[in-house]
Amino acid sequence: MVKPSKSHGRIAISATRKPSALMQGTPDLAGVWKARVLTLYPEMFPGVLGHSLTGTALKDGKWQLETQDIRRFGRGKHRNVDDTPAGGGAGMVLRADVMAEALDAAQTPHSRSDWPVIYLSPRGKPFDQKTAERLSQAKGITLLCGRFEGVDQRVLDAREIEEISLGDFIMSGGEIAAQAMIDATVRLLPNVLGNQESYQNESFSDGLLEHPHYTRPAIWEGRDIPAVLTSGHHGKIAGWRQDESEKLTKARRPDLWSLYQELKKD
């Protein structure tokens, strides 16, 4: 017997011609952004996504999360999902036939622009704030979490899978990367953040790193809050924050600073 996908968040059942659909994943809620995650370890979810801001939003039905166990589509008695790499070499590779069935089972009627399908891969395009904004404007996303040496290239080509990387480092699998990507995206969804300005003033939103923050006590271990921040002069405060953002970006991220300078010229 094949176990149904795990679902998280508010459930709403609507009429369907296929009764079995009620047992397979989370029914789509009209207008609610959804993340579908294909993984060998569905028990890793919701993980950190079930806590704090994203957890509250998930519970309130402001977004949905569905996991699909890749092992369901494995071959043979032991449901094998991988095999040795063609041409030799270390490790194992996730099979094209297995992955294709998993991807097809998670397929939606939407176009790739409305519902991106993404493979978390260290060789993919770097994930950044603009990507998070793009994903938040879609109807949902499907994330493929790799393991071992990766996924057979043929299925990535045949299913037109977008590859995105969390950074220039190697992890044991894509699950942590998927949770980080979902977190960065969900917080941009409507009504998830209490204050809309919270993300508009954050790092990367305008091409710069965010300015430093301070709060009470006014003096801590002999260190004062910068006087301008307690002056009540909003114009001076905004100017100070802009200056600090520029200083930090120039010192810590010369790549972003160069891009920022180019954009200012335009």
Task: Label this structure with key terms.
266 residues; alpha/beta; Alpha/beta knot; Trp Operon Repressor, Chain A; 2 domains; two-stranded antiparallel sheet; 10 strands; 30% helix; 17% strand; elongated
Q: What does this molecule look like?
A:
- Strands 1-3-2-7-6-8 form a 6-stranded mixed beta sheet. Strands 4-5 form a two-stranded antiparallel ribbon.
- 27% of the residues are buried.
- The chain has helices at 52-59, 96-105, 129-136, 153-158, 175-186, 197-200, 234-252, 254-265; strands at 6-8, 33-39, 63-69, 82-83, 93-94, 117-126, 140-145, 162-165, 219-220, 223-224.
- The chain folds into 2 domains: 6-186, Alpha/beta knot (3-Layer(aba) Sandwich), CATH 3.40.1280.10; 203-265, tRNA(m1g37)methyltransferase, domain 2 (Trp Operon Repressor, Chain A, Orthogonal Bundle), CATH 1.10.1270.
- By secondary structure, the chain is of the alpha/beta class.
- The longest helix is centred in the C-terminal third of the chain and has 19 residues, at 234-252.
- It starts with 5 loop residues before the first strand and ends with a helix.
